UniProtKB/TrEMBL annotation:
PANTHER family listed in its UniProt record: FI01434P-RELATED
Protein name: N-acetyllactosaminide beta-1,3-N-acetylglucosaminyltransferase
Organism of this sequence: Mythimna separata
Transmembrane segments: 16-34
Alphabetical UniProt keywords: Membrane, Transmembrane, Transmembrane helix
Pfam families in the cross-refs: Glyco_transf_49
């Protein structure tokens, strides 16, 4: 595993900050606990608020002894862990979670604001205060602004066993140690896979450094190596990043229920024996899924992972696609600045990322500038250039590649899914309000994101392409290989989409000139 030095340093600094904040927050907790036992109204106010009307439920849960213990963990300075910044604001979590009005700022944060010169706004972003403006950090004032702008609701972070069509879902089976997160303070990378893809998780998180929601398909005997892989990644890798950021959900068909479903409460108490090789390093033809010839229910996984995210913004992606670093903070700072076209367009919007592949002997580029020099000497190429050159074309893609890295994250171009892009299956940052993925489609059948693309087109979405953000596939350039079996499933799925799903979508969402599947 190649880990750049500065990541490790960052990790250490993070740990120190983390420890300081634990001590700090335990003090706050004790204070609040005393307060609460006195039944004072302030004590109630302090309970994390999950959404409108659920204060009472949160309060009742809080009264339970075990949850109160849990709350100590949850209080640990979320923004410190998400972005490595220690701020004092979280000592008054009640104010953070109750800002509802758009204009009015809570008086309790005023003191904090005074200490921060860089309130990012359209005016001072251009001005000298900008010296202090770091788009890789979310300041307290930016967080306050985001809270008001997004008006999102915080979500519970509890394990649940639920059903989704023919699938059983163990939601939040193993939770990241980050604890509760407010919906405005980070972005969740949401993804899916079989355990044999988990080698991608650490390199992905090293670049993302924010929450990851991962749905793992674990039918039958794939369950045990899945659990072992999770344990290995949490206990046996060179950093604690997986433990900090990754939340695992498990799903399997009701026809392939594992014979044994280990209880995380128990297995997480025992450290994994790290002497063996990583359990996710297997010949993929040996998995239960392959042996039983099961199709991969890709969109079930996508939807589970996305809907379980705690944050307002999500990046639904494929686990082999590694994001450009510090994307979450840069993106949220851009949202908080709210410059045109963000402030001017009234259409619904998503934020597509440009996609690339790099040679297997190279590390994924860290910045757009680095990416451009790799494109020049062909050690990087546009995604699927040799597999399906037009599938992932983004509008103004050539211009994007030619344009130098901008100083700050922004919108490069606003595109639509029409004309040359009418079959586009973009990967984008969006929210849970965007249409979900059709769960009847399999990965083997291909074009599994088309139906979502069609709905986005009919709803006249703006595709706000980000200037500096990109995704790089796990190193190794792909070439077209004929796969007779997959082609057969593909043509079946394609006719199903045209003959069954499209008429449904037309009834539900209507039609629009230029919108096709
Ligand atoms: C809280 O957790 C600690 C350690 O996990 C445990 O020893 C203690 O009994 C718990 N307290 C309550 C009230 O559950
Ligand atoms: C930038 O600062 C200067 C002086 O410090 C001020 O005159 C000018 O109006 C400011 N510009 C903006 C856009 O705020
Ligand atoms: C871990 O596994 C190795 C080899 O399987 C074994 O030799 C070793 O004793 C185990 N360690 C522990 C702590 O169980
Ligand atoms: C994986 O196993 C299959 C069947 O046992 C074998 O044909 C194939 O060569 C193996 N692949 C690798 C990469 O070892
Ligand atoms: C291509 O460019 C990258 C980035 O500048 C550089 O690291 C790499 O060595 C170059 N490779 C070749 C084969 O020229």
């Amino acid at each position: 595993m190649q880990v750049p030095n500065f990541i490790i340093m960052l990790g250490n600094r993070r740990n120190l900050i983390f420890r300081v904040s634990i001590v700090f927050n335990i003090a706050v907790f004790l204070y609040a606990a005393v307060h609460y036992s006195g039944n004072s109204p302030q004590g109630v106010e302090w309970v994390p608020i999950t959404s409108d009307g659920s204060e009472r439920a949160a309060e009742l849960r809080y009264l339970k002894e075990d949850v109160r213990n849990d709350t100590v963990l949850k209080l640990i300075e979320p923004s410190a862990r998400i972005f490595g910044e220690f701020t004092s604001q979280k000592v008054v979590p009640s104010t953070m979670s109750t800002v509802k009005q758009k204009e009015k700022r809570p008086s309790t944060t005023a003191d904090v604001d005074k200490k921060i010169s860089a309130v990012p706004s359209e005016a001072n972003i251009i001005n000298e205060t900008l010296e202090a403006y770091d788009e890789n950090v979310l300041s307290d004032s930016t967080l306050t602004l985001l809270r008001a702008l997004l008006g999102c609701n915080d979500k519970d972070f509890i394990p649940e066993t639920m059903q989704r069509g023919e699938f059983w879902v163990l939601k939040n089976y193993v939770r990241a140690n980050h604890g509760a997160i407010s919906c405005h303070e980070s972005i969740t990378y949401t993804t899916h896979g079989g355990f044999e893809f988990l080698d991608n998780l650490l390199p992905l998180i090293e670049r993302w450094m924010a929450p990851v929601s991962l749905a793992i398909h674990a039918p039958g005997s794939d369950m045990l190596p899945t659990v072992n892989s999770i344990r290995y990644l949490r206990d046996c890798t060179s950093s604690d990043l997986v433990m900090q950021y990754a939340t695992f959900h498990i799903f399997f068909s009701n026809k392939h229920i594992p014979s044994n479903i280990p209880d995380p409460e128990i297995f997480l108490k025992t450290p994994y024996n790290c002497t063996d090789k990583p359990p996710y390093v297997v010949n993929s033809s040996t998995t239960y899924k392959q042996q039983k010839n099961l199709l991969y229910p890709i969109n079930v996984g996508r939807n589970i992972a996305r809907s379980a995210a705690l944050t307002h913004f999500v990046l639904p992606s494929d686990i082999e696609l590694y994001p450009s670093p510090d994307l979450a903070a840069k993106f949220l700072n851009m949202i908080a600045r709210n410059e045109p076209p963000l402030s001017t367009s009234t259409n619904p919007r998503v934020f597509p990322l440009s996609l690339f592949e790099v040679d297997k002997n190279y590390v994924a580029p860290w910045t757009k500038t680095e990416l451009q020099s790799m494109l020049k000497n062909k050690t990087a190429i546009p995604f699927h250039k040799y597999v399906c050159p037009t599938c992932h074309n983004i509008p103004n893609g050539k211009e994007w590649m030619a344009a130098p890295e901008a100083k700050y994250m922004g919108v490069f171009h606003v595109g639509k899914r029409i004309g040359k892009q009418s079959h586009w299956e973009p990967i984008f940052i969006g929210t849970n309000e965007e249409p979900y993925y059709d769960e009847r489609l399999s990965w083997e059948g291909k074009q599994d994101k088309m139906t979502q693309g069609y709905i986005l087109c009919v709803k006249d979405y703006d595709f706000m392409i980000l200037n500096n953000a990109f995704l790089v596939h796990k190193p190794g350039i792909k070439y077209y290989k004929k796969n007779v079996k997959r082609d057969k499933i593909g043509s079946k799925q394609s006719s199903y989409v045209r003959n069954v799903i499209l008429p449904e979508l037309k009834k539900l969402f209507g039609v629009k000139h230029g919108c096709v599947l």
